[in-house]
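Q: My labmate handed me this sequence with no annotations at all. I'd like to see what the chain might look like in three dimensions before we decide whether it's worth expressing. Could you predict it?
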Amino acid sequence: MQKFKQELARVFDDNLRTKQWQNIADWIIIGLILLSTVEVFLSTFEPVVERYGAWLNIIDLLTTVFFTIEVTLRIWCADLIDPKYKGLWGRVRYCFSFYGLIDVLSTYTFYIAFLLPIPYALLKALRIARLMRVFRYLKAFRILSKAISNKSRELLVSLEFLAIVTLILSFILYFVEHEAQPEVYENGWTSVVWAFAQYIGDPGGFADMPPVTLAGQIIACLVGILGIAIFAVPAGLVGSSFSDVMEEEKDEQELRDNAAAINEMMLLRSLQREGVYWPAKNISFGDLTLLLHLSDEEIVKSVGASSNLRIKNLAAAIMERDRKADRVVVNQFHINTDYGSHVERGSSVTIVNPIGVGDNGLSYFDWHLAQLGGFNYVANERYSMQHANRERRCSFYSVTDQNQGHPALNQFLSDTLEGRGKDDWIIVVVGEQRIKERTHLHFEFGGETGEQSFDFEGGIAPDRATLRRLFDDMQRTLDEKVGLTVDAHQVQPKLMDTNIARWLQAHTEANVLLLSLSYKLMVFDNEVYAAIVNIAEVLNRNLEHNCPVGLHKEEYLVRPINSPYWRGLYGVEL
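A: Here is what I predict for the chain of 574 residues:
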């Protein structure tokens, strides 16, 4: 169902440029909108109605039913189109957005008419308003809307100025004309209406009572000049903004093309390890310059224009005393929610990545660990306490009283806990510099530092028998197959009460486990691919009981550049 919902979200992305099957649905929607409009137009001709009225009614009924289903599905998956529409009130907010309101009024009013006496003319007018739905597909309309929005403040200031000056002139007009024409200019309202009527073509016929005094005629001339300005000034502002927006659109499209080229290059530079193909972990600025002829500035701007690329300094994965020269790279990640990534696979194991946005190599490691193991996946890819954007500053690793009200964190926690039972496992996977010299993988389930037993009181994994079996299997497998070391409670301090693993355990019956991985392993060692495969295999055979046991290598058997799955995952067009 989640996959079907994601496919619908791609159908409703309002993008006619992508070369995907979903565009067929877009063109069908546009075609039926035009057909519905033609039907309403033809229904205004009595001879046509007399001869073809039955067919017109069938077209009206079929298009209404189609749009009812389409609008309902659009509202259902609105949260995937834009995260601000998540939840019940988010859907309500969507229904009151510009396009959402058009969708609702042009569709659901058909059914309201069965309950309430809505005039037939109003129903037909709302049907014809359906044509406005085409605007969402038109680039020209988006550009014009953006041009007006960019100059909205200037437009408001100019209109305020013109309105105030017109009021002043209309009051003066009253005082100079009242004595000459008391029966015409009997009060200030008359002069105000006369002045503003000049701007809209004098629909009330007020121009038939022109000023007769010299001062009044001069004021009338000034009002006429303002009448020109009231259109010329906004037109000039919008025209200037339109040119700017066109240039911005051109620059933004170039940045989007560059971002797509970077994503494609990372799939192209895949490598084969452990009998399967892997997308590239990183690609350096130097390689992007050589391969795509992009400058450092263009790379930075292109990454900023992308939703699934970020810039990292690999030197940050090394402890300060060992730190070497900066090595700036670009890496990619999956994103489908406001906070990052949420993939539900129906597994009894959920991999949780609370600090992907800040950690080197962690998102790559966790994503492939979850996918190969067939596990559920929840990852924070957009929020951290050191984020440059203040609105994105929030810790997902420490859950405190201060940040629990944050909507993105709340959604992250909700997605992590939803549907988890006492036989399920939530595994929080993070990176850690302090363990790199002593061990590669650290188990933490609530004991004091140095705790060696698996039967101490408390803790965050109630099923200690399964946990002990998992630990022994992990220690033995990684030692024999990869040469990596595993420990439990030997390096890290005891989990604090605000740690996300402890918070999750306090709010679920499921078992919770924290795994800390060496940055050196994730970022610099070639054994990382073997580590991912073997850790996924150990977790799968010890903890999976909802899905078939075994690694899920289907998507890894084809080079990523040739795989519709990987290209779709990172927005690379076929």
